[in-house]
Amino acid sequence: MTLLDHPRTARTTDRTPAAAPLAAGAPAGTPSDVAAWVAEVAELTEPAAIHWCDGSTRERHDLLQLLVAQGTIEQLNPELRPYSFIARSDEGDVARLESRTFICSEHEIDAGPTNNWREPSAMRAELQGVFRGSMRGRTMYVMPFSMGPIGSPMAKLGVQVTDSPYVVVSTGTMTRMGTAAIEQIALGADWVPAVHSVGAPLAAGQQDVPWPCNDTKYIVHFPETREIFSYGSAYGGNAILAKKAFALRIASVQARDEGWLAEHMLLIKVTSPTGKAYHLAAAFPSACGKTNLAMMAPSIPGWTVETIGDDIAWLRIGADGRLRAINPEAGFFGVAPGTSPKTNPTAIDTLWGNTVFTNVAVTDDGDVWWEGLTSTPPAKLTDWRGNPWSPESGTPAAHPNSRFTVSARQCPSIASTWEDPEGVVIDAIIFGGRRATNVPLVVEARDWDHGVFLGATIASEQTAAAEGTVGELRRDPFAMLPFAGYNMGDYFAHWLEFGRRLRRSARVPRVFQVNWFRKGADGSFLWPGFGDNARVLQWMVERLEGEACAQESPLGSIPTADGLNLEGLDLDEARVEELFAQDREALLAEADDIEQFFATFGDRMPAELVRQLELLRGRLRA
Ligand code: OXD
Ligand code: MN
Questions:
Q1: What are phi and psi of 565, to 5 degrees?
Q2: Mutate which of 98, 310, 311, 312 to test ligand 1's pocket (most atoms within 8 Å of Cβ)?
Q3: What does the pLDDT look like over 201-228, one tens digit per residue?
Q4: pLDDT tens, position by position, 454-472
Q5: What architecture is the 262-330+416-621 domain classified under in CATH?
Q6: What gap in Å lies between CA 339 and CA 289, rounded to an integer?
Q7: What is the fold, at CATH topology level, of the domain defined by 9-70+97-259?
Q8: Ligand 1 geometric centre to CA of 513 (Å)
């Protein structure tokens, strides 16, 4: 019997320290259940050695040196970019692979129409074949990690094994990884097991490649038993399993069962000129500017935005009855292209050093470059594939989904409360997408249930963060389409139910919808975006403070004619009107599209959201 012959529920949950020989090489005090699981993974995957990660600086340093020696990364010019590295991935391993991401719930209906479902025992049998001997010739690293500050009542623990030292370095940045996490498990915390292999076993004497991976890829989740298996990719969310696989897909199922929310949201603290602070959580599809908003430098005097998280938020009703949120991550895995001193000066400052870049271009003097970093590219570069590049090459120098991986601690705008174990109190929730048409700059929901409708109907033009045709419009409810670990209809119902609980126990946060990407008739963006998005935040804060700067519209409340602070902006009235225009015909056509989308959830679709759609149609026809 090996790991995949039986689900996790059939295994030990003994937390007493493991005895030799089970825990060979494990640090003293390693819980028996962790040691037993590691032994089972090793029996299946047959690594040449096992390394138990302590998460120390020394360990990170040694791994970076190893990666340099193996040719996976190169050190950048230390004078320009201290202690920073560039990794070039395999050309077939550059983004999240939604088509190879599986939710293997017992019943297909529980995965729902937006997920790829496979019958769990059939998937176990398939994975058994795939993982057998997959780590031969490689070291298997064992990474205990905490999502959320160590010891926080909102944190959750996991253990990932991987045969990729690049993934260890990345996980070390993105999570609290190492000894402190295993100590939490030893104290009794539940933990989620995650197995990762690049799927490139090495025969004796076989020369390794810089970026080992496999053409066949699997990112598999067993939601009921909280297990993750990933094979064949070393890129981002496919391989850093703490992030999308655990903190969103598995955590969303835990959240449903335990009465909280695991969301694809940034977290910010906004302070007005009077010194009053508010916390906002905002969901946007991948590569729609979450990191930019999370680190925004407001263009309006007196306002500050501080960063708590840029990608994932876990929200629950705290002991005080307020809605509270933590950022479960410890770093940023941000999209590089488009990041510049103009669009995100804070990110640029964050990346001064200690950063691992993946698939960006490299300048002649050993620094990084990507499209949008400067308005004119350098005359000569090495592109993300490692080839010489010039502006005449006609191909992007950096891959459109190239990334930086950097500790959140390096971010100059990080809020002093970002690691508050109790989380911060959430005052408002924002939903956004990339929409050239139909969706106004900002709308306030009429109430929580209408807000859930706004979240459920997010659509966005596809970006390069996942495979697929860039620019195509797709429904991405709550920006969770690729990340909900269960039936999205049930997920909507969970949000509605959560609102009912909030109404009983606490002040219900306001809900807003934004769209920075609306285009005018001439095809250009109507709104300057970036630091000027603070003007929209200002309007939200004024709404939170009860100011009457809103008027009703079919889609929700929008700013009154003088409600939005446009001072100092060169934006004529006609363009402002276009930003808020609600074309009834186009919106009724969109309502038909939403109806079809809702219908895909069959009887799992909550009646309340169907009612919200009818209410919208009624307002549009009035
Ligand atoms: C991400 C994504 O990497 O959403 O955050 O794709
Ligand atoms: Mn994301």
A1: -75, 105
A2: 311
A3: 999 999 999 999 999 999 999 999 999 9
A4: 999 999 887 766 666 666 7
A5: Alpha-Beta Complex (3.90)
A6: 9
A7: Phosphoenolpyruvate Carboxykinase; domain 1 (3.40.449)
A8: 20
